[in-house]
Design brief:
Blueprint: E1 10-13, E2 16-20, E3 30-36, E4 45-47, E5 51-58, E6 60-65, E7 68-73, E8 77-80, E9 86-89, E10 96-103, E11 111-113
Antiparallel strand pairs: 1-2, 2-3, 3-10, 4-11, 5-8, 5-10, 6-7, 6-9
Length: 115
């Protein structure tokens, strides 16, 4: 299966632009590109279902996972086990691009947002 970027509808999620390449498919994992503009942050959240794997394609982003902070740059990965509370933010002046893999696949019903 091939999925072309221009065939994926962008989703605005509180200032984040998300391209969910696997939306509507019945796969064991899901794959998305996330664009994080300067000054934007992801809400504090956690998943009841999925482990999350964030890969930094471009830029520098601050992750907080279970109250531990890390500044990640291009080529770095953040692994977030299900149940771990996290958020991330772009404190730079440049857009950040992330790849996100959920295993098992993303299902909004199992995502919890705290702010």
């Amino acid at each position: 299966m091939y999925i072309r970027h221009d065939s994926v509808q962008a989703i605005d999620f509180d200032g984040l632009t998300i391209f969910d390449f696997t939306a509507g498919l019945e796969n064991s994992s899901s794959f998305a590109e996330i664009r994080v503009p300067a000054g934007v942050r992801h809400k504090h959240s956690w998943s009841e279902r999925s482990d999350k794997y964030y890969y930094v394609v471009r830029g520098t982003v601050q992750f907080t996972v279970d109250e531990k902070n890390a500044r990640l740059s291009t080529g770095d990965v953040c692994l977030i086990p299900k149940g771990s509370r996290f958020h991330y933010e772009n404190n730079s002046s440049e857009e950040v691009v992330l790849i996100l893999v959920h295993t098992p696949c993303f299902n909004l019903e199992f995502e919890r947002f705290e702010d």
